[in-house]
Structures are given as structure tokens and as C-alpha cells.
Task: structure prediction
Amino acid sequence: MNRRQFFKFGAAGLLLAGGLSWLGKHFAKVEVLAGQSVVQQQHIPMLKAIAEGLLDPALPATGRTQSIEAAVNAFVDATKTLAASAQAELGQLLNILENPVGRRLIADLGNSWEEATPAQVQAFLVSFRDHPIPALQPGYHALHDLMMAGWYGLPSQWADMGYPGPPFQVL
Result:
């Protein structure tokens, strides 16, 4: 390697490190307020796609769009009860998956979440769950658990499961 190649590789490395640092700082900006969700309006199309991917067998044949919206609203409500640190991590995850670069690198989706087919979203969820980097797997579990808790916590879903409801109500 000559000196010119060394400087080219060094400059490219600095640019790459600087770009990754900027992206990391951009994704780290999550404002957590007590009693509010970290889910932002730009996250909603992604959450609708994920809800359809996770809940596909449980969604009714009629009123599917309304059910997906109810699931996303329940997801948002469930996030309000998380600890501040968990909300910050969830906000970072949502920002990364919503961003075109993160969506391409982690979800392997070249198109937007609105254009993703249910099969593409389900393939992403399986690969996210079984990702070879163990540090990414909790992201899947967070999305899965919050979506399932929100969906099956809706009183409108209890009859379909044969659940009569809680034996008492907390006022």
C-alpha cells in the first residue's frame, strides 16, 4: 500500500465513522415524558405493518383495517406504562426501524412500510427474532410483547378467546 492509498482509506474511514456517529446521535434523541408514549406519528405506518405481521391469524376477516388500528392504539397505550429507560430504548428502536437506512439494514426492506407486503414483514419479524447478533433480539421481543399485550388486553378480543373478563374490576 502506498501513501496515497493509505490517505484515501484513512479519509474514507473517518467519513464512515463520522457518519455513523451522527446517525447514532440522531437516533438517540428520544424525549420521554411521564404518562406519554414515545411513539410518534411517523412510526404509525410501521406499527400497522408490524401489527398485521404479528396478528395476522387473529385478525378478523371483516373490519381488518379497524382491528389493525385498534391494535396500534393499544400498543401506543401500552408504551405509556413503561419505565423511562425502556421507553427511551423503544423510541430508539422505532426511530431506527422507521429510518430508510435502518429499515434497509435491519428489516431488509427497500420499500416503505406502507408498501411492504405481510409476507415481507413476517420474514423481517422472523429474522429479527432469530438475528445472529443477540443484542438485536430484545427489539423483536419488545415489539412482539407490547403488540400482543395491547391486542389481547382489548375487551373486544376477550370473547373470541373464550375469556369472560376479569373476576373483578379495579376502579
